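WARN no homologs supplied; continuing
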Amino acid sequence: MHHALNETHDPKLRSWVASANGEGTDFPIQNLPFAVFRRRGSDEAFRGGVAIGDQIVDLGALAVREATRFDESAGAALQAAARDTLNSLMALGPDAWSALRRALSRSLREDAPAGAALQACLVGQVDAEYAVPARIGDYTDFYTSIHHATHIGRLFRPDSPLMPNYKWVPIGYHGRSSSIRVSGHSFPRPKGQILPVGSDRPVVGPSRRLDIELELGIFIGIGNDLGEPIDIADAERHVFGVCLLNDWSARDIQAWEYQPLGPFLSKNFATTVSPWVVTLEALLPFRSPLSRPADDPRPLPYLDSNANSDHGAIDLDLEVLLETAQMREQGATPARIAATNYRHAYWSIAQLVAHHTVNGCNLQPGDLFGSGTLSGPTLDQAGALIELTAGGRNPIELPNGEHRTFLEDGDSIVIKGSCERSGFARIGFGTCRGTVLAPR
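OK structure emitted
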C-alpha cells in the first residue's frame, strides 16, 4: 500500500463527460481504468485507452495532441500507454502510473480548462473493440479461496478435502498464456481424455462437465531480476492493477489428469479476461483487513506484514450471470447464479507476489496471475458450477425453466464486479463475457 488517498479519490469530483456522473456507472472520474482498443471493425492500430463514463479517452490521440499539457512523468507514461499493449506503461512503475492518473483526472474534471481539447480524443465504448490489455509472457493461476478448496476437495477427496499445505503456502500452477482472450470471445467445447464412470479405460471426447471459475486477474507491473525475491512490503509496487477473469475448466478431463501434477488440458483451452484493468490506486478506498480464523497458523515471515494484515483484502463484490441460447432468443435477462466478495480470499495479492518470487523467479511486466476461484463460505457464493450443483447432483433451475449442472453449447457467462463504500464513488470493472460453442 504505497499510495495514500489523494485528490483523485475525492467523491465530490465530477467530470465534463456527463455519463461519468450518472448513478451506478462503472467508470466515474475516480476510477479511470486502462484498456487496449480500436474502433470496431476498423483496421486502426490498437492503442491504450482510459474509461470515463460511457466513453474512452484515446491515449494514442491524446499523446499526439495534448502531451505537452502533462508534466514530464505523466507525459512519459502517456507515451507508453499510447502503444498497442500496456506493457511499456506497466514497466514504468507506480509513480508514473499515479502521475498519469492524476493528470487525466485533472483534465477530465468539469472545470478543467483542457476539457474542450480532450473532447476530440473521446471514442464511445459502444464503437470500440478490445484486445487483451498486455502481452502476457507468463500466466500463473492460484487457489486463494479456502472455501473453494474445501468444497472441491470434498468432491475429489472426501476423506481429506483440504490438503495439509493449504494454510501454509499459496498454491498455484503455471497456466497457458496463449489461450487468454478478451471479453466477448467464443470458443469450442474442449476435447480430451475422460474416464467414464465404472470404466478402467479412458476415452477421448468432448467435455460434458464444462465449468467456470470466477476469478480476479492480477497484472504485474515492474518485474524483478532473476534470483531476487520481492519482499512482501514492496509487493504491491509490482502490481499494475486487476481485472475480471473466467478460468474455464473441463471437470471430467481434470478428474482424470490432475494427479500427480495438476491441471493441464482441463484448463489451457480458454481463459477470458475483462478489457478494463483497474489500478490498485483506484481501489485504495476499498481496502480492508485480511482475516483468517484465529486458530489457523500465522503465515511464515516472508508472507506476513502488519500492512498486509491491516489492508491486504479488497471489499469487491462479484457476481456470475448465465445466459442460455434460449434466453438470448427470447430477449430474457441473464440469470444471476452466484454472488460473492473478494475479501473471502485466504491469500492476498501481496502474498501471491512474495511467494511467487521467494525462490528467485523473475516476473515481467504484463505477467498475469489468476486469483483462483473466489468462492465465499456458503454455496450461493460459490464461483464454480461444480460447487453450486454439488458435483452435478443438484441442477440449477433458471428463471425460464431451464436447468444446468454444467455448461451447454450456446451458453454465455458474464462476470461483473464493483466496489462500493459510504463516502466514496462506486468503482466498477465492466464485464467479462465468454460463450461456449459446439466442439469441433
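The CA atoms of residues 420 and 426 lie 5 Å apart.
OK
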